[in-house]
Amino acid sequence: MVLFCDTLDRHGDTPEKVLHRAGLAGADWNEPPAVAALFMATQNHFPSSVPSNTDDDDDTDYDAAAAYESDDST
After folding, report:
1. Rounded to whole angstroms, how far apart are CA atoms 64 and 12?
2. Domain total of the chain
3. The CA-based dihedral angle spanning residues 68, 70, 71, 74, taken in that order and rounded to the nearest 10 degrees
4. 59 in a domain, yes or no?
5. For residues 36 and 43, what is the distance between their CA atoms, to the nearest angstrom?
6. Nearest Cα to 19, choosing from 43, 3, 36?
7. Greatest distance between any 2 Cα atoms in the chain
């Protein structure tokens, strides 16, 4: 909940305004309709994707089943 409220505040909107526009003025912020309204209001402030710092090394082709089978051959 804090993430939503802080994000709205940083972008010039307040949770109270969002709830008022959604017809939930005076609602408890932890109620499901209020959480949904705050979540939807913050969506345009979040990036559509998160960049990753992982690379495509050859060790990403690890096959756990094959490793298990090789250990089972005793």
Report:
1. 49
2. 1
3. 140
4. no
5. 11
6. 36
7. 68
CB 10 within 8 A of CB 47: no
Alpha carbon separation from 13 to 9, 49, 58, 68 (Å, rounded): 5, 23, 46, 54
**Domain coverage including residue 29:** 1-46
Q: What is the pLDDT of residues 17-58, one digit of tens each?
A: 999 999 998 888 888 999 999 999 998 888 776 666 665 555
**Whole-structure pTM value:** 0.59
Q: Is 45 helix (H, G, I), strand (E, B) or coil?
A: helix
Backbone angle region of 2, left / alpha / beta, with phi > 0 → left and psi within -120 to 50 → alpha: alpha
